[in-house]
Design brief:
It contains three helices and two strands. With 127 residues, it is mainly alpha-helical. It has one domain. A two-stranded antiparallel ribbon has the order 1-2. Strand 1 and strand 2 form a beta hairpin. Helix 1 runs antiparallel to helix 2.
Length: 127
C-alpha cells in the first residue's frame, strides 16, 4: 500500500494590481492610500464637516471604511478643530487690542509733543 502525500498548499499571494487611492486623488496605490494620503483624506473630511457639507457621523463612517485607526484620527482632528480655532481667535483679538493701544499711545504722544512745541499764548506771537 502506498501512502498518498500531498504537497502543502502554497500561501495565497497578495494582489499586486494597483487600486485607486481612497482619498479621491485618482492615483493608484498598492494599498488603500498613497503615502500621506490618509492624512489628506482626514483633512478633507474635517473641512467638509466644518463647512457643514457633511455631518460628523457620516464623516466618521467614511473614515471608518478605511480603518478604525483612521476613524480615530478623524475623531481627534474634529475634537481639536474647535479648540484650535477658538485659540486662534483669542490670540487675534489680543493682538488687535494691543495694536489699538499702541496707536492710541502714539497719538497721545504726538499730541503732547505738538502742544509743547506750540506757543502757549497768543500774546507772544509777533505780528
Amino acid at each position: 500500500m502506498t501512502a498518498k502525500t500531498t504537497a502543502p498548499a502554497a500561501p495565497a499571494k497578495k494582489s499586486t494590481e494597483p487600486t485607486p487611492c481612497l482619498c479621491g486623488c485618482g492615483e493608484n496605490s498598492k494599498g488603500k492610500f498613497r503615502p500621506g494620503h490618509d492624512a489628506r483624506h482626514c483633512s478633507n473630511l474635517a473641512k467638509k464637516v466644518e463647512a457643514k457639507e457633511l455631518t460628523r457621523a457620516k464623516a466618521l463612517a467614511e473614515a471608518g471604511k478605511a480603518s478604525d485607526a483612521l476613524r480615530n484620527k478623524l475623531a481627534t482632528m474634529l475634537d481639536n478643530q474647535g479648540k484650535r480655532f477658538k485659540e486662534k481667535g483669542d490670540k487675534a483679538v489680543a493682538r488687535a487690542q494691543a495694536k489699538a493701544a499702541k496707536a492710541v499711545a502714539r497719538a497721545q504722544a504726538k499730541a503732547a509733543k505738538a502742544a509743547a512745541a506750540a506757543p502757549s499764548s497768543p500774546e507772544n506771537v509777533s505780528a
